[in-house]
Give the backbone structure.
Amino acid sequence: MAAALITLVLLSYLLGSIPTGFLVAKAKGVDIRSVGSGNIGATNVFRILGKGPGIFVLSADAVKGAIAVAVIAPFAAKLAPAGDALLPHFPAIAGICAILGHNYTCWLNFKGGKGIATTAGVFAALAPAAFGVALATWLVVFAASRYVSLASIVAAVALPLAVWLTGNGGLLIGVSAALGALAIYKHKANIQRLLAGTENRIGAKKPDPAAPPTQKQA
């Protein structure tokens, strides 16, 4: 079991740690950490580089989470003894490790994104119905406010409730609550700006890629 668990954790973390936003921006001659909000996530890429790169980064970050659950977990399970008590939990462990890899990537001094897209990919694979509820919540809040950060925070709060309402077990409810809390924690600067009325809405003027980092929305 030790070999299977180590394989699961390492492969899932390393997959999640691929800094998609940083690499896409670097390919265009931009260090995404030094412009806009300084965050490597899809929203900052969208603001700095435009819709195409932003959608690509969003999709790639979500796919990382889904692959960890749907591909890496079954692969690692083949290395474990049949009937081991941890085997049913491999998909959830893989998802957690992929999200931690994204949020704290070893390739950028353990500074990464906020994990919303990767969490979405994880739950699209783990609990599709709950993911659908959280996604609908995100879309409604974003449409009403045009704040990506507010939509992400509300969706993070809604996720464990959605997991519960769609009939999932206690472990997954606990995992979703913990990951939702992590997502909210990663948005602490955004929360401060929302309360101060200084958070930027999508649709605001796109920052100059040559401009230094500001306290704009990540």
